[in-house]
Queue: 2 jobs
Job 1
Amino acid sequence: MEFDQWFNAQLNARPIDPIRLAEPVPVADLPTPALLLDEARFEANLARMALWSKTTGIALRPHSKMHKCPVIAHRQLALGAEGICCAKVSEAEVMQRAGIESILITSPVVDQRTITRVSELARQNAQLIVVVDHPEAVMRLEAALAQTRTTLKILIDIDPGLGRTGIAPNEALLALLQMIDRDCPHLMFLGLQTYAGHCMHIPEFDKRKSKYQRALAAGAEARNVVERAGHSVQLMSGGGTGSIDFEAELGILNEIQAGSYAFMDIEYRDIESNNGPTFEDFSVALTVLVTLISQPKPRTVTVDAGFKSLASDKMPPQFKDVDGLNYYWGGDEHGIVALDNPSRTLQLGDKLELLTPHCDPTVNLHDYYYVVRDGYVQELWPISTRGCSQ
Ligand SMILES: Cc1ncc(COP(=O)(O)O)c(C=O)c1O
């Protein structure tokens, strides 16, 4: 089998539709670790963000790298989202197969094989948008599109000080813009992306706001550069869950790419908001159900979820609805839990829910969401773009 044939086949084999069980299953009967999605909280989060978007007039293009699930993307679109973001081309390929067309790929695409795939996606989908930040990659993209006589919308990525992707709003931007204008008839300049991810989780509200404001000045300056060069900027995309409290006031973006708001996690819950010491605008809808499988010592118990079920790049997970339990990483498959006067009695086989430290990489460790309503699961939603990192 040819490599590309295999690559496409494995993407096409991914499930994209929800699975409905004939009979609902009580949460306590699920095999663990299981990724649970509290449907009522999740729906409230989506509705809250849809209202925010409507009220502020700032379009919402949720980042699907967080949930990786076309079922969820369709729900976001049904509530008025402008489209979705994908981090990677393979994510976009799966989402497009699931019937989603308004897709923005938020990372630059450079290698030839991936560029060819982008041009194939663009051939099938006139709504596709891709960010660019380098003349060489732009010329490769132009050449691939010219071969299939396809046009593609692009955003130039502006670095707001994160230092990850993008360019500064200076002569480099002007030169790139002029090159696109002059040499790239198949690329349609639509606007700018400026994503200040380094500001999103700053716990103190005022500090977050002022750092974000400074970061977005790069976006505003970039828009000036582009407009002075005689181009209009239709789309200014960026932002995330941690910036919604100030986007409207700043007035720089006309589209936000928030992702985590749909599920939330410990890291986001613990930032200060406009209204109080924690970020209660959205509630935590995502948990990992675990089983108490051993009690090696009188004051510790062991649960069956470690690095393979919970992202470990941030703080340790926390138990939902039980106090006095402190989770410590116990390796790939285990968590060791110190008992500090727990608020309920525990016994072998008990099922407990853990709040996840960081939702995006946690989701990427699971195949399905177990969608919970009133303590029962009747639907499973596939995490279709799990592992789509290419
Ligand atoms: C480019 C980009 N846009 C948007 C987001 C979504 O941000 P959040 O999950 O903080 O809402 C991310 C997340 O890392 C991102 O990398």
Job 2
Amino acid sequence: MTITQGHGIDDDTRLAQKYELWDEMPEGYREAAARIASFQALAELVGVLPFAEWLDRAPDFERKQMLAAKIQDEVGHGHVTARVAEDLGVPREQILSDFAEGRSKLLNIFHYRFETWEEIGPAALLMNSSAIVQFQALDKGTYLPYARALRKIEKEESFHYHHAIDLTHQTMTLGTPEQRALAQRSFETWLPRLLAYFGPPDTDTYQQNPMYTFGLKVKSNDQLRQEWLTKIVPVFRDLGIQVDPDLARFDEDLQEWVYAAPDWIEIKRILNEGGPMLAHWRAHIAGTLERNGTYRDIALEGVPA
Ligand SMILES: [Fe+2]
Ligand SMILES: [Fe+2]
């Protein structure tokens, strides 16, 4: 039995009791599970938009196919996680309208667009690898329909991860010096964003958070961040990307990764007020909801007489 430090109950106890949709759940559990699934559904769907903008501009047919496949997968992830939320009482339309009308927030990494094609490989590699680390922890969580959805999603995320490696490798081996510099800059721009994606540093009381005591959140933000850095930095080095030790380095004395802390004040501002693309994505989702309204009504209520 592993004993966690501090105030929490031990992990084996915290994660032992699993729930199916029809099981009796502790007070607040259903809402917490719905929140985590609907939050992910939104992230999967809006997370498509920066990539979809590049479909027409992909440099060749093979890349276009890969990008189209990734986009389809991500929309599928949105459906699968929205379905989990829906079963728990949050309609999928609400997930989108809450976003379109400004009632829900978006993860910090989805507030941007890609300025160049060369930016996409390293950014997607950072995004996919961090999603995989997150999901591989979350799939040990206590809500079984969500855990099953994640295990399905992970298989496709692994494909995206390899696509991102391939794309970055192509730029770093066949690209011009300018293109390689763009990939390098992408890594430096996106690394702090992805460090922040794991959430704020652990506090002394993180184990009292209901998401954590319910076993919906499995590991702490700092644990996941470290785990991810340990895995991903060597991958970038192998691809020929320089990892500035001021940005991230392994400290032999501490036996852990030290990294330049993201600008948490700026991250908080982006989460609250929105980054450069938030308004654009909101308008896009609002427009889609409106355009598809007639079809949705027919699907839900039947063809009008
Ligand atoms: Fe996904
Ligand atoms: Fe993905």
